[in-house]
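Tutorial handout. Part one gives the primary structure; part two gives the three-dimensional structure as tokens.
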Amino acid sequence: MIETSLWEDQDVGDLSRVRKSILPQRGDGWAEIARRELPDLAEADAVARLQSWNLHVYMRASMRTCGPGNPVLPSDVIFVEPPLAPA
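Part two.
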């Protein structure tokens, strides 16, 4: 039996705010997404922020290099804003 009291104690009122994200367009890399989604920042700063907000993509092992920073895939969910602060 699942313990439901854990859920009852949670405040679910904060679930209405969703962190802004996109699906990449064909051929998108970090720089293209940065220019389009964070136009007010210098490209290098925007790319660094995107990568830090999307470690699930950035740190995925690349089949070519076996290191971080592999290309963005069209199926990747890319967050374009920082994690939401707790209320």
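Part three, for discussion. The radius of gyration is 17 Å. The mean pLDDT is 82.
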